Amino acid sequence: MKLHEYQSKTIFAKYGVPIPKGRVAATALEARHIAEELGGRVVIKSQVLVGGRGKAGGIKVAKNAAEAEQLAQQILSMEIKGLPVRKILVDEAAAIEKEIYFSITNDRAAKKPVMIASAAGGVDIEEVAATNPEKIIKVHIDPLLGLRDYQARDIAASINLPREYWRDFSKIAEGLWQAYRKTDATLAEINPLVITEDKRLIALDGKMLIDDNAMFRQSDLNEMRDTDEEAPAEIEARKYGLSYIKLDGNIGCMVNGAGLAMTSMDIVKLFNGEPANFLDIGGGAGADKVAAAMRIILSDSNVKAVLFNIFGGITRCDEVARGILVAMDEVKPKVPMVVRLVGTNAEEGRKLLENAKMITAETLADAAQKAVQAAQQN
Amino acid sequence: MSILINKNTRLLVQGITGNEGLFHTTQMVAYGTNVVAGVTPGKGGEWALDGKIPVFDSVKLAKEATDANCSVIFVPARFAPDAMFEAADAGIPLIVCITEGVAVQDMMRVRSYLDHKGVRLIGPNCPGMLTPGESKVGIIPGNIAIPGNVGVVSRSGTLTYEVLYALKLVGMGASTCVGIGGDPINGTNFIDVLEMFEYDADTEKVVLIGEIGGTDEDKAAEYIASKMTKPVVSFIAGQTAPPGKRMGHAGAIIEGGAGTAEGKIKALKAAGVKVAKHPEEIPSLLK
After folding, report:
1. Which one is predicted more confidently, A71 or B258?
2. What are the tens digits of pLDDT across the range A107-151?
3. How high is the pLDDT of residue A313?
4. Mean pLDDT on B145-165
5. Taken in order A60, A61, A65, A67, is the CA torsion positive or negative?
6. By CA distance, what is B179's nearest residue in A?
7. Cβ contact A365–B280 (<8 Å)
């Protein structure tokens, strides 16, 4: 789950990371009031869950409250990478002396959290990593011990931070570690962390990603989820415990197991078709889940054929077949359906579908080819 | 011979009285796996499977009474980390965690602790292991594979079943099939299993089934090029996956342009691995 900048910074502040004074607004008038409260120059920042807001014109500096209102109006009517701007953050403008990159994330290969810092802050860190990898400092953290004080000092020294800032930097490092640790984040990023002209360290921008698997103990964060920016079908799928991702093709896919679901998409493509979605019904899916999956797939009007690929292990093919029948009865689909059932109770499943006017297939390749053909003819 | 599990495996089931635990224990026993004990806190003293398997309150008690040497975990995600710590502390040398959805920071702590203890973990979010004809630990359907000389290692579940089944249809069998799981942080990676297959007398060829996300396949390619003498055939899932989206498995995501199927296939081919265009092509590439 992605958090907005304003949400991330609120969490950082909770763990002792200094952030600029400011508040979030949904209208230009609100933005004006916030700017009046803050006095002086403010930054108006669009709150959308994509990168490159600045380049798209979604971040502007206003000299006074009147200009803040005007710029807020402008930004609130924008779309950034297809996402309408619904909220803006109004922050006091900082006088910046230096920008630093500072984050913590999971290092899959090392199987540990890694703290990353760079004196080249404020820019796209992946570009820095590609062009000047020596400018990026990485320090692994023992997941059982947590961040050690000396590690924070080492990072400060490695990015040539003047000594007078080390104490404050260590506090920020500890705060960032705690924010990451306590919220089950997979990324907690401050870019930039700035040194202001009046010699303070402030987290000017923030980004957090939260582990979806940890939501059972992060119910506060779950309330922060911005469903405005998710595809409705994906929200619906999550409700039923299905993993669904919409793609641009015309062959709907319903598969059990993530690896096999990806493979089914790949084979459709191999035979010159285009998958309309990724959909994993998961292990042991019953009839109701299958019916929900079919409704979701068919809610995409691009879909010209549907491919069912079920390898029964825990999932029983007859249960899936029953789900398909329930869904067919309810949705009355007009597109051709290709079904392949293998494994547990496949025979019973096939029998159930005998009168359902579906195209059957034996192998994966056969199923994909038939689906591609059906989509072309439809 | 085989790797990790065989007819001498004395299996303990954590979460034996739950729905999943009970169903799969029944399947494992029917396959011939030697299931010696079950653990469900609060149900110690009961018996599972019509009095066949004793249930204990803790792994420690179960281990003392039955000398189990492998544990398989079927408990819900929020309790799975504790189950793994418990098994490790009780001195179980091989832990197989089937559970999907374990929080990633929990897994980093578990992995770090188990490494200190020298305990081998398979999974989580995996189908477990199968040594055809000898032992089944986990949820891989027993009837889709026959004994043979092909070692199979995979990050996936049902996709692995496809491969085992495709092998069986042409009369090829597996020495052992190991599902290492689809999570970003797991207990055992491709290299660990490749090394075991390399030294296993009964394994002559290896099938590696990978997918997008992470760099495990790239490292496997390096290992294959420098250390392996046995032929390896591979399939990588997710060639059509869009970047930045988690494709079902928590670990199956292309991040910052890294972890693509294309990159992995290239690395494997450079290491001399034959890469199949689709899973059903694997048996012909093994011949």
Report:
1. A71
2. 999 999 999 999 988 777 878 888 888 889 999 999 999 999 999
3. 77
4. 95
5. negative
6. A259
7. yes
Contact B162 A364 (CB under 8 A): yes
Predicted TM-score (pTM) of the model is 0.92
How far the first Cα of chain B sits from its last, in Å, is: 22
Is B102 within 8 Å of chain A by CB? yes
Nearest to A259 among B102, B237, B280 (CB): B237
| Structural domains of chain A, with CATH | 21-92 (3.30.1490.20), 96-222 (3.30.470.20), 232-377 (3.40.50.261)
What was the ipTM of the complex prediction?
0.90
Tokens standing for B4? 């990790």
Q: Which residue has the higher pLDDT, A318 or B179?
A: B179
* Per-residue b or e along A309-330, where b marks 16 or more CB atoms closer than 10 Å to that residue's CB: bbbbbbbbbbbbbbbbbbbbee
A25 closest CA partner among A14, A36, A15? A36
- The answer to whether the CB atoms of B156 and A344 lie below 8 A apart is no
pLDDT band for position A54 (cuts 50, 70, 90)? confident
Residue B24 annotated among the catalytic residues of the structure:
no
Q: Is it the case that residue A352 has pLDDT exceeding 80?
A: yes
pLDDT of residue B1 exceeding 70, the answer is no
CA B132 – CA A162 distance, rounded (Å): 63
Taking CB atoms and an 8 Å cutoff, what residues of chain B touch A283?
Answer: 100, 139, 157
